[in-house]
Amino acid sequence: MRLARKNRAELGSAMVESALVLLTFFVMLIGTIDFGQVLFFHQSLVERARTAVRYGITNPTNTAGIKNMAVYNTVTVTGTPSAVLPNLTTAMVDVTNPDANTSSARVVVTISGYPIVFLSPYITQSFSNLAVTVAMSSETQVP
Predict the structure, then answer these.
(1) pLDDT tens for residues 37-80?
(2) Which of 8, 86, 99, 119 has a CA that sits 20 to 30 A from residue 31's CA?
């Protein structure tokens, strides 16, 4: 008779322990997903900026084309284009051409203000990614 009472008490503690372990597991799982999402979007933004600057070194005066290349992966936009990354717009892309028409001319593409939404309720729900800047020497330099 005494063994039956002990097993019943252990059953209740096993349920409490399972609930605590599952809660911890799900918090860590959601945190891992959020961290992976930040890494994915940051790397995608770096790749978008690199693509835009590669186009920009051969066409440094076409700022609209450089911005379109960063967002839509094409120079000319027709119809209703879809961005390569969700919520990425040309307003988030800044193109500068410092020292234009000199031997040290370069193209600088900066993507800033890209919003990331987290799944975790413990982290702020919206986050703007840090600015991504890529610079490369222009091929249309003046000797």
Answers:
(1) 989 999 999 999 999 999 999 888 899 999 999 999 999 888 88
(2) 86
Residue pair 105/26 in contact (Cβ under 8 Å)? The answer is no
The answer to whether residue 93 sits within a structural domain is yes
Q: Which domain holds residue 26?
A: 2-137
Instruction: State the amino acid at position 142 in one-letter form.
Output: V
Structure tokens at 107: 């193209």
Report whether pLDDT(113) > 60: yes
**DSSP bridge pairs for 135:** 108
Whether residue 142 lies inside any domain: the answer is: no
In degrees and rounded to multiples of 5, residue 31 shows phi and psi of: -60, -40
